[in-house]
Amino acid sequence: ENLPLDEGARSGRFRTEAMGSDPDAGKQLDYTFAAADYFGTMRIAVLSGRAFTREDNISTLGNVVISKTAASLLWPGLDPIGRRLQRDGMTSPQTVVGVVDDVNQNNLRDKPQALVYLPMVGPTPTSWWLASPAIVLKTSRAEVIAPEVRALVRELAPEAPMYRTHTMEALAKRSMLQLSFTMLTLGIASALALILGAVGLYGVLSYVVAQRTREIGVRMALGAEASQVVRMVVGQGARVVGLGIAIGVVAAVGATRALGSLLFGVQAMDITTFAAMSAAMMGVGLLASYLPARRASNVDPMESLRGE
After folding, report:
1. Which of 55, 77, 187, 281 sits most deeply, having the most CB atoms within 10 A of its CB?
2. pLDDT class for 10, splitting at 50, 70, 90?
3. CA distances from 158 to 2, 125, 128, 147, 148 (A)
4. Smallest Cα–Cα separation from 116: which of 139, 90, 138, 141?
5. Best CA proximity match to 97, nearest among 147, 37, 163, 53
6. CA distance 241 to 213
């Protein structure tokens, strides 16, 4: 097998019987090899048909298993079981015996690609189509079992070197390493931007409201209640902040297209995150308007009039 997230799959052009003999009519698909209980061990669900049997792997290259995406691409709306598929370079077509669920064969960032599984034909390793296969073991002792497996391979096939061992967890972490660093950098930058934005918003609004201290005192001297003045100032600040949030949300929605390529399993357009950030900025804006307005409303109106 070519393990997911390890060496990646090969690529070839495959034709159905309906496509005829024209090589250019085929679909470019990835393909890999499987044997024994690979799908069960890797928890890849068999959606229809069956997985490979021992007979598939010791006779001739006559049967194949395809992924769900490959089935919908080659035979949309049809049952692919029993249909014939031929790869360029092969002398005869093969029969589809099973459809399995999609997997991320190359990396976790891309969508699962259409994949064709070929049997590792032949009774001995020298007759396999894949010169350097991976052996998959499912065990709770994955971190410590490598020496035992190496000894068993040395005993059964002394000429077959066992030159690499991985756990699927390690392969997943390796696949995510560059992305994790990128996301950590973006996370730090985003946190700094949020903090600077909140501090800047608070500073600007509080300064603007503080500049209106005399105006607030005059309004109160003319009979306005302190609570009325505070509500007026906070309302005006909320409108300014609301306009800024609306502009920011529109810009952020546009930026989700660029961020979408860095994500997997989640949507770049997260309503909860957008709502939380908007609520946080609105809270900062209301606080920046309320505190200076409250201080100004406590100023003696006569002092404001004398200042005027």
Report:
1. 281
2. confident
3. 22, 12, 17, 15, 14
4. 90
5. 53
6. 20
